[in-house]
Amino acid sequence: MPSHFDQYIQDHKFIDTIFIIGGGPSIKTMNLEALRAPKHFIICCNQAFELFPDAQIAHHSDYSWWTKYQSSLETQFKGHFITGCGLGNSRSYPETVVPMQFIHHANQDQLFRTSNHVYGNNCGLQALSLAHLFQPKNIVLIGFDFKSLNGQSHGYEKSTTDPSINYPHFWNTFLKSFQAFERLKTAQWQSVHPTHSPPQIWNLNPDSALTLYDKTKTLKDFL
């Protein structure tokens, strides 16, 4: 992993708030223009970089996604880093991508200890894990729905929900992974950061199926 990414994390530790832009359809119902101010720290998941091309980090989990959107990232994304896990393929990334390792049972002790490990079976959870490396006060989740809205599974896609995909099954699997992450964080965080509390996590969609996190605040509370 490029050493400058590790230094970037060190240089931006303990910031107040990190916003993570997911792909849920609720992003279409929110006015996110205020987030375009350069002072905000943003991590984009998958195609959300098209909405926020100046975000600090664009993260993806699957190598197949990378091959599909590589050219778009190269032309549209103006942020600092592209990070990816490369799941589903053993091929190496080009130097333009910071490769992240996937936390599994055998290396769970690496969570929060190293700058090149992320947790989760989906891009959103990996981005949340990544945000923890900066030890911010708040992590704000936007577009973390895990449910459809008006027949659409994602907010950045024009097509309606694909009937051939069992979205509820995938979303249920993803939600269980968030629960597992929180259990592991409870066991791990204090030993890694004994003098610093973990971030407070907020979900800005009050109707989200992800109920682990506080949903009582709105975007203006963090601006």
Written account of the structure:
- With 223 residues, the chain is an alpha/beta fold.
- The strands form 2 sheets. It has a 7-stranded parallel β-sheet with strand order 5-4-3-2-1-8-9, sandwiched between helices. Strands 6-7 form a two-stranded parallel sheet.
- Helix 4 links the parallel strand 8 and strand 9.
- The relative contact order is 0.19.
Q: Mind telling me the C-alpha Rg?
A: 16 Å
SSE arrangement, N to C:
HEEEHEEEEHEHE
Assembly classification: single chain
Structural class of the secondary elements? Answer: alpha/beta
**Mean pLDDT across every amino acid position:** 90
Query: N- to C-terminal separation?
Result: 33 Å
Largest sheet: 7 strands, parallel
Strand content: 15-25%
Low-confidence stretches: none
Key features of this structure:
4 helices, single chain, 223 residues, 9 strands, two-stranded parallel sheet, alpha/beta
List the helices and strands and how they pair.
Layout lengths: L2 H9 L5 E5 L19 E5 L11 E6 H14 L4 E7 L9 E3 L1 E2 L14 E2 L4 H10 L5 E5 L24 H26 L7 E4 L20
Parallel strand pairs: 1-2, 1-8, 2-3, 3-4, 4-5, 6-7, 8-9
Outline:
With 223 residues, the chain is α/β, with parallel strands linked by helices. It is 26% helix and 17% strand.
